[in-house]
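Hi Y.,

Following your request, here is the sequence exactly as I used it, all 161 residues.
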Amino acid sequence: MRLSGLAPVWRADARLLILGSFPGAASLQAQQYYAHPRNTFWPAIALLLNLPDLPQRPYLERLQALVEHRIALWDAVAACERSGSLDADIRAAEPSDLPSLVARLPDLRAIACNGAAAHRQASALLPGRVLLRLPSTSPAHGSRSPADKGAEWARALRPWL
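Below is the corresponding structure, written out as tokens. Let me know if you'd prefer a different format.
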């Protein structure tokens, strides 16, 4: 089955672009970035932005907080074939048009990748760009605590906001 990803979230003055690989099954079903309840993306962003209640806010308010803090969000893969949610199962990947989005972000200071797969995919699409590789927030990568991941995300990204 061919799956299509989510639209990018951005505005032209974004300073930071965060890239995932491709939405998991829960995110595709909900049509929301990082919808799986055990994904630590929203808690990590809450720590980064010093907004402790962010993960409990309605989805559109979470996206608005990103945009207000000049953070763009997208995935490196636009469409693919995959059963389940694992990046390792992605087949026939169609890349997102990252070069076009990056060209629309004149204030962009950094591109951060949520995990190794996103970093690998983005590296192929944006050769020569410096990409920050962050630990995956996926529940499939649970060897580190959510607090440790959140702290690493905050340390790595705060200078770019």
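The longest strand covers residues 16-20.

Thanks again,
Q.
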